[in-house]
Amino acid sequence: MRMDYIIKDMDKLIKYFFLYPRPFASELSIYSTGYIMGKNYRISNAFPWIAFSFILRGHGQCRLMGEVFEIKAPCVFMQLPGEVAQYAPDPRTTWDELFITFDREHVPTLLRKGFYKPGRLHWPIHDHQIHEVQKVFREISEHLRRDSASRCVDRIDLLAQQLLIESLHVPSGNPTNEMEAMVEDLRQALLHVDDPGEHIKLVAEQHKVSVPSLRRHWHRIMGISPGQYHAMHQMQTAQELLANTSLPITKVAEGLGYADPLYFSRKFRKQVGMSPTDYREKFENQS
Questions:
Q1: What is the pLDDT of residues 264-280, one digit of tens each?
Q2: CB-hemisphere CA count at 13 Å for 224?
């Protein structure tokens, strides 16, 4: 029996990942994810998992835990396990929705990482966040359409976390206070550097705060450490290049700012659990 449970038609694509082992263990393994374009029906139900719904186009209403609020894209709302949610696009309209779900056992981890905070059931995606959110969304939707669940499960786990991070980080053009602007400066820097430690010091000096203070504010807003964010971004990019291009490993390393390919390979093995060569061969064998 082919255990690749997919619901697929022209406007809907849903994959279930809970049955698949993770070659690279993740703290947050997703249960399912899906993209529904042109959704025009009402949901009134309780589910056994925790769900995050990204509304990318459209508007409507939602009732969660006694609170009624307007849905206006782009935004995110979440549903806790066992809690009845009622939501739908406005009459005679539709919306586009990407959702990700996690098993209820991951609620403590979602709390610890800051992806779930009691009382925060919905939030907007600001203009200065939308580019990164759309970029991650495109990667997820491409994997959903192109790959079997077993092939893309590890990538989807990472992309789901990145999608939550990008939706929650402070908008670069509209920080609500100086500390949030500082965190955004560091986040932007970490996307383009090899050594996060040096840039943490540099950003702290620019904002005239201590490194421990910067780290505290970063963790409060982002939910993970700067080093974890940097490593996740670097290794996610490396995995995509190794799996989907024929670039030599030395060129992959250079493209990510590593002058020494052996150093890159050591960091890749530490983060992913195998060498870049073994990782590429693994996906070639699955093709």
A1: 898 888 777 788 898 88
A2: 21
